[in-house]
Amino acid sequence: MNLALIIIIVIAVVLAIVGSLGEALGFLLWVALIVGVIALIALLFRLITGKKVG
Q1: Angle 15-19-25 (CA atoms, 0-180°, nearest 5)?
Q2: Where are the transmembrane segments (predicted)?
């Protein structure tokens, strides 16, 4: 798996945890969801096309 995708997924999970901790930081939850969806789409695209990077 591409290292950049792993880093993006980890960042999305961290943002989701931080975003769920406080109401004032609730917007981070949406940012985490968007980043997570983008990372998932990129991962699926790489799996479907079979391209290896790195």
Answers
A1: 125
A2: 26-48
Residues 15-41: what's their mean pLDDT?
Answer: 78
CA 3 vs. chain centroid, Å, equals: 12
Within 1-54, residue ranges assigned H as helices are 3-21, 26-49
Give CA–CA dist 38/30, Å, rounded. Answer: 12
Longest CA pairwise span in the chain (Å): 41
Interatomic CA distance for residues 17 and 29, integer angstroms: 8
| Structural domain spans, the chain | 3-48
- 37: Cα within 13 Å, side-chain hemisphere: 5
